[in-house]
Amino acid sequence: MTFPRKIGLLLILVAIAAAWSYEAGLSLPSLRWFYSFHAEPGAFRPGDWRYTQERYIGHAFAGLTGLVGVLMIAFGGASTGIR
Prior knowledge:
Helix content: 40-55%
Distance between the termini: 14 Å
Strand content: under 5%
Number of helices: 2
Structural class: mainly alpha
């Protein structure tokens, strides 16, 4: 396994762990960064999607991290010519 593929696997594991820990209610220091984008108190009303924007933004960042990991696994090998 080449180095970019190892990093890709690590990124996928981090994305899965971040989403799982958020849904489980755990506050793991390095993984809660994905979900740390809170709205200011009183900025939005409770029915607005931006009221819970940390959930949507966090899932988007975790998904993007996982996608980058998948791309690194797919295209990170020395046999593809991409280094």
